[in-house]
Fold each of these.
Amino acid sequence: MTSRWHVLGLLFLVRTTMAFQFESVAAIGPVLQREFNVGLPDIGMLIGLYLLPGVVIALPGGAIGRALGDKRTVLVGCAIMFVGNVIMAFSDVWAAQVGGRLLTGIGGVVLNVVSTKMVADWFAEREIATAMALFLNSWPFGIAVALLALPSLGVAEGYKAVFFLAADLVGAAALLLAFVYKDRVVESFPKEGPRMERQTILLVTLAGLIWGLFNTAIAMVFSFGINVLIEQGWAITSSGSVISLVLWLTIFTVPLGGYTADRVRSKGVLIAASTVVAALLMFAVPRTGYPLAVLIAFGLICGFPAGAMMALPASVLKPQNRAGGMGIFFTVFYLAMSLGPVIAGRLAGYTGRAATALDFGAGLLVACPIVLAGFMVLREGALANEIAV
């Protein structure tokens, strides 16, 4: 496989299986609650476990890929994901579900970090923004497909069929990668430059926090949205289809938002306006008689700030410290994404309403422009210091 666009398509499919696997728990949350006699806090914990390994693995992820080779590392990640899902499919003990989910998350993080680097290798010379925007869409695409397919499968065949399907898709993607893909030969990069200054570390941390808060907030919709609609009298199957619609809409709005961000004077205004409007819509979902219309509006707006947010770390990192800086960025992101569903699940369990999780997500969206303001003030100060020097 020599065409970089074909490579992008292949890596898109491989990463889609990660998103599908991640959503497999939330898509059949009510089924798991019934089968294992657990509550929303337990489902929230199981959702968050998938991303928890990223807190540890994201930082050294690039080094792992360099040691084993990118293709081999992704295949190892797929194998771990496969084993974790098989454990969940065969087990009827909750503790084994937790262990299997943690394994799938370890493999998923390895796949995510290294496959992102692989896309960068193929598109570093040109069209990197377009490639990354398309690659980023594999996440909402995989989750949307899961929401369409898995609720009805879970109701009809049970959770075992759902987890076997997720394992089969990962295995198929791994086989395709093994037989079709060849690592691109790239020039050796110089060793990491001097340690990053504290100000740069803080800026990258804030950028990672913004990205983490945003994604955690969006995750509240596709993690607890089905339960919210069920509380309003919807069936689980139709609820999954409605929530998946949000993800289908973001597939179009994420690249459109990135295109817009490259052409507006202030990316900060785009981020702030989009997140505030999205927060209001999320808060309105459980309080309106027309949740479908509100969710459609939410899907149209929530994808817009993604591209501008992903550009934040690049605006403060230099080539010699970009690898380490992005490691910090993704570590903060994974920390937020792993803790968010757990906190939301506990809040929902405390109030007895899944809608509380959406309120929590709305609050996270409101926090994004607040953190962004601190980021921009600190960045302006850093730029002023460089000019003075």
Amino acid sequence: MAEQKNEQVKEQDINQLLKVRREKLADLQAAGKDPFEITKYDVSHHSMEIKDNFAELEGKTVTVAGRIMSKRVMGKASFCNIQDLQGSIQSYVARDSIGEEPYKDFKKFDIGDIIGIKGQVFETKTGEKSIHAEEVTLLSKSLQILPEKFHGLTNTDIRYRQRYVDLIMNQDVKETFIMRSKIISAIRRFLDGNGFMEVETPMLVSNAGGAAARPFETHYNALSEDVKLRISLELYLKRLIVGGLERVYEIGRVFRNEGTDARHNPEFTLMELYQAYTDYYGMMDLTENMFRTVAQEVCGTTMIPYAEEMIDLGKPFERITMVDAVKKYAGVDFTQIATTEEAKKVADEHHVEYEARHEKGDILNLFFEEFVEEKLIQPTFVMDHPVEISPLTKRKPENPDYVERFELFIYGREMANAYSELNDPIDQRERFKAQEEQLAQGDDEANTTDEDFLNALEIGMPPTGGIGYGIDRLVMLLTNSPAIRDVLLFPTMKSLDK
């Protein structure tokens, strides 16, 4: 009962504080000082710029703008800290420097207000690089209350729902998203420097293929037609290879109608690229070089701390076939298993669950997921997947039960998926047919036949290597972030009113 009463008192206090803020705004507006009428403010420097170049800027006049994060009023002089994109900087605000009336206004400013400061750069007696204010301008009045300074914003649900507050209160969060932008820029530079061309392909499609995933569906009113949101970038990019654009890539959002967890969000950023006249070995070399280059450029090192591990992106990545990986970690040799029936028997012996429709190759993959994935901490290319789980991949000529495909694993997580692309339209039609049979048996993630894509293959596609990278997982790795929601500015959340 006492706790409930305290909560009621607290809510009343907050409501009173909010009321006071609105009254302050009304007073400013009545006095002709409405901050929301200000349309621009010329900023000459940011906080870290001033601190890093203090020797050059000491004694010079600068203008900065940002949010008040702390304030100490001491009679005729005060201190405040304002936060901008780069960090925060202290300002000394004295009545005799800015004038009596402006100083009265300043004393009424609240934590969270956005202000502009013009003044001279100096160093306090305690050695803090600061700005001696000559002018202070209120640029925006904050009508809400920021979380308490010392505890910050720690509730993860609120952090994800109100990312704008999270970015204000948690500097490390802001740094993560600055890093994300730098990572994507570095990827673009790397690919552009290797002769790739960035393109854009449709998000609304009649046939969502290129991955094993259930699509979102919507209705296109103008065409009176049901369409789907894309689940991958693959099939349109391959059409461009057919059209003679020999090296293409796209960085874009894809949408998969699945649940959320530490590594999955139903909409996420995918980068796919396709290169004519190469194969999956060429994609391995490209991937290794790209991960190494991006880490060095963005992090300044190829030794990346993640959770309790140090991930070494500098040394050659391990390469192992899926069959050898299962043999190494599960002790089961699938070269000695000839039929689906034998594979199911071995699965029963090792308590690996499977469905009636699963064939030998599917069960090999289930063994891999059960016994191998989590063991692959350092960068490892897992090669030569079974054909049953790879409907768009070229078979290995010497062993057509397997395909020229690899997945890159780091810290037990799939980071990339690549193929020697299937360019035989007859074989591709048979693979689509097999996928539709899986769909009929209840696999709602199976592909359906894409006739226009088959037509493109019949026109003729050169030997091609292709790869898809999950940008979010790469950002997680390079920023040491434990969950995908930590690297998405606005992750998918269930509505509060549902």
